[in-house]
Amino acid sequence: MTASAPDPSATDPSATGSRATGPADAGPAEPGPADPRAADPRAARTRARLRAALWEECAERPLDEVGVAALVRRAGVGRATFYLHYPDLQALAVDACADVVRDAVEALHAWRGTPDPAAPPPALAAFFAEVGPRAPLYRGLLRPGGGGPLGELLHRELRAYSRRERELAGGPEPALVASAVAAAFGGLLADWVHGLIDASPEQLADRTWRLLISLHRTPLPHTP
Asked: Which of 26, 191, 201, 202 would give a disulfide with 157, using CB separation of 3.0 to 4.6 Å?
């Protein structure tokens, strides 16, 4: 980490000031307001049963070995009902994992005052601890390096939030820094769930926090 003094907007992993809230647009991938199912509690319960059944299936086998027939049996619904809500298993899996995007963004912003590089928010370690047991499903959607459907969703939401907050704070190069933060966090998370990084949740939280702060504090080259 550099020893140079950061500008006022460059002291945290997302240039959010002292707020500790997550983005309003990083929630689960539910049907939009125009979809009548969005306001139907029966549809919400059905989707919840399908998501729960997918978690149970993925606790026993990789996502690419899960079949729709076994899934709907476990959920207690018919195949037609499944396809009424999701076009395929990957869409269901992304929906089931969408909370991890919201949780990741909130964990990175769960701090107040001036962030200390040596003291990551406790919520960040808690986030990694919750991700660990569900790694089998995440591995099917989050490829090493941060690619895959879940990785793309995480990168898009985290980059948008970081850029918006850095712009509000007046930080330099908001698009560049936001992309770096989103790519670094997504890549670290993906490599960890794939076993490419050997670290406990607490150790990973500490290292990730230091890295993201250093991204904001690294002096950027002047462009005329």
From this structure: 26
Q: At what angle do helices 89-108 and 68-75 cross, to 10 degrees?
A: 70
Question: Over 90: is that where the pLDDT of 169 sits?
Answer: no
Q: How far is CA 90 from CA 30, 65, 79, in A?
A: 14, 12, 15
| Angle subtended at Cα 44 by Cα 40 and Cα 45, rounded to the nearest 5 degrees | 115
Sign for the CA dihedral angle at 158, 122, 208, 173 comes to: positive
Structure tokens at 48: 């919840």
End-to-end CA distance of the chain: 26
User: Distance (Å, rounded) from C-alpha 106 to C-alpha 100?
Assistant: 10
Q: 20-79 pLDDT, tens per residue?
A: 333 333 333 444 444 555 568 899 999 999 999 988 888 788 888 899 999 999 999 999
Cα 15 from chain centroid (whole Å): 18
Q: How far is CA 44 from CA 30, 106, 139, in A?
A: 9, 24, 26
Rounded CA separation 180/111 (Å): 20
What ranges in the chain are assigned the alpha helix state H?
Answer: 41-58, 68-75, 79-85, 89-108, 122-131, 135-141, 148-169, 174-193, 201-217
Pair 180, 158: CB distance under 8 Å? no
DSSP state of 219: P
CA distances from 169 to 74, 212, 214 (A): 49, 17, 17
| HSE of 179, CA atoms in CB hemisphere, 13 A | 3
- The C-alpha atoms of residue 110 and residue 209 are separated, in whole angstroms, by 12
